[in-house]
């Protein structure tokens, strides 16, 4: 059997994992062995007796910066452990969660989910020493234009988005194919029982049983929503381009 999709997370707080990834869809799939999670403590790669992982920024300024040597050693240790277990994928994406990174998209998530699973470095403090990014070929990935206190929650968001796409994880194999972003559109509105909620009925067409009409209604709703809320996505769709495509470096 080939090894399952695996996320290796390098963090100063391995106890944060699996955290939310241990419940519901992702958690059940984890327990079932449909994917694997390895949280490794960056501090285990510290070399001095205080086990320090950070230092003050060169050139001055507030905060602390994760040391290049410690982080590089932590990445190498993860590779060595995988080699020892004969479990090291050939072209494994190496990501660094970072607000400066390329904004994460569903198309990049689909690529990551189709691969062997990434190694993900979680920053803390003011971030990481620039030199380790090039030296270990880290691709910087952002989950949005705001600043978190660490990369762990960002890594969890990325992993969660990948795991739900893995074979066998979602109930219906195609429940991912119609949702937001997959066709460059936001998803149409969803309804369920009761048929009337605080005076609002479910749109009649959805109860008609006419699949073609339902599909046409949903498409029109999805287009109207996308136009109104995300003119950027709408423009990309109509220029015939795919929404901003991202490549994953191996
Ligand atoms: N001084 C940095 C922010 C550091 S925040 C700057 O201004 O760019 C500390 C860590 O949190 C980062 O190293 C990164 O790993 C993580 N992080 C913060 N915001 C993030 C975001 N939007 N996406 C992904 N990771 C983020």
How are strands sequenced across the largest beta sheet? Answer: 2-1-6-5-7
Q: What is the radius of gyration computed over CA atoms, rounded to a whole number of angstroms?
A: 21 Å
Shape field: elongated
Provide the helix percentage.
25-40%
Q: Report strand %.
A: 15-25%
Largest sheet: 5 strands, parallel
Mean pLDDT: 94
What structural class should be given to the helix and strand makeup?
A: alpha/beta
Question: From N to C, what is the helix and strand string?
Answer: EHEEEHEHEHEHEEHH
Uncertain segments of ≥5 residues (pLDDT<50)? Answer: 246-250
Bound molecules: S-adenosyl-L-homocysteine
Total DSSP helices: 7
- Count of DSSP E strands? 9
> How many angstroms separate the termini?
23 Å
Write the layout of secondary structure elements.
Layout: E1 5-11, H1 24-31, E2 35-41, E3 54-55, E4 65-66, H2 68-84, E5 94-103, H3 106-114, E6 119-122, H4 130-135, E7 139-142, H5 152-163, E8 196-197, E9 200-201, H6 211-229, H7 231-238
Parallel strand pairs: 1-2, 1-6, 5-6, 5-7
Antiparallel strand pairs: 3-4, 8-9
Helix pairs in contact: 3-5, 6-7
The protein binds S-adenosyl-L-homocysteine.
Structure in words:
The protein is an alpha/beta fold and 250 residues long. It is built from seven helices and nine strands. It has helices at 24-31, 68-84, 106-114, 130-135, 152-163, 211-229, 231-238, and strands spanning 5-11, 35-41, 54-55, 65-66, 94-103, 119-122, 139-142, 196-197, 200-201. The strands form three sheets. It has a five-stranded parallel β-sheet with strand order 2-1-6-5-7, with helices on both faces. A two-stranded antiparallel ribbon has the order 3-4. Strand 1 (5-11), helix 1 (24-31) and strand 2 form a beta-alpha-beta unit. Helix 3 packs across helix 5 (152-163) and helix 6 packs across helix 7 (231-238). It binds S-adenosyl-L-homocysteine. S-adenosyl-L-homocysteine (SAH) binds next to strand 5.
């Amino acid at each position: 059997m080939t090894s399952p999709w695996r996320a290796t997370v390098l963090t100063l707080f391995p106890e944060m994992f699996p955290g939310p990834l241990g419940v519901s869809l992702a958690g059940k799939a984890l327990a079932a062995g449909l994917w694997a999670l390895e949280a490794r403590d960056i501090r285990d790669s510290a070399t001095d007796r205080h086990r320090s992982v950070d230092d003050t920024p060169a050139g001055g300024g507030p905060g602390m910066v994760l040391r290049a040597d410690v982080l590089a050693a932590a990445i190498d240790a993860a590779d060595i452990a995988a080699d020892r277990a004969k479990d090291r994928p050939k072209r494994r994406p190496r990501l660094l969660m970072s607000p400066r990174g390329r904004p994460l998209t569903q198309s990049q998530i689909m690529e990551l989910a189709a691969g062997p699973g990434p190694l993900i470095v979680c920053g803390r403090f003011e971030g990481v020493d620039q030199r380790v990014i090039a030296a270990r070929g880290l691709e910087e990935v952002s989950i949005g234009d705001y600043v978190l206190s660490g990369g762990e929650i960002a890594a969890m968001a990325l992993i969660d988005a990948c795991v739900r796409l893995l074979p066998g994880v979602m109930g219906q194999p195609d429940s991912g194919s119609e949702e937001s972003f997959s066709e460059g559109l936001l998803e149409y509105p969803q309804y369920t029982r009761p048929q009337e909620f605080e005076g609002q009925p479910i749109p009649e067409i959805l109860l008609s049983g006419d699949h073609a009409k339902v599909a046409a209604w949903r498409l029109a709703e999805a287009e109207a929503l996308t136009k109104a809320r995300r003119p950027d996505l709408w423009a990309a769709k109509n220029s015939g381009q795919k929404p901003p495509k991202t490549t994953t470096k191996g």
